[in-house]
Known about the structure:
By secondary structure, the protein is mostly helical. The protein has helices at residues 2-81, 85-141. Helices cover 96% and strands 0% of the residues.
Amino acid sequence: MNKTWMIVATACVFSASAYADDAKSVDLDKRGDRIEQRLDNRGDRREQHLDNKGDRIENRLDNRGDRIEHRLDNKADRADANGHEKRADHLRNKGDRIDQRLDNKGDRIDQRLDARGDRVDNRLDNKGERINNRLDRRADRR
């Protein structure tokens, strides 16, 4: 009887050990998935933040250009009223150039921040995948 119980007890210990290893593997898989998801979300939030920042800067520069152009147009209208046509044309052209330059600058900054946001998002996505893959391999070895 003792030998029989020893064999049964040994089998139970090995079975419990295998079950514990399986549970650890599942835990590592879940942990990797959670980490990957968290990093993906962080990357998405950072990308959105940089996109919004670029849009705000672009709008601010567009508005500034519009105000300057409007102010110079008003000066040009006064110059026109006083008979200074050349001066009025010069002021209108200057306002157009400044407005266009600020619009272009805002567009470039917005594009640069969008590209940076995309790179940050991709980097964090890749990092999450690498961590998840590493934990999956570790879980498979167990």
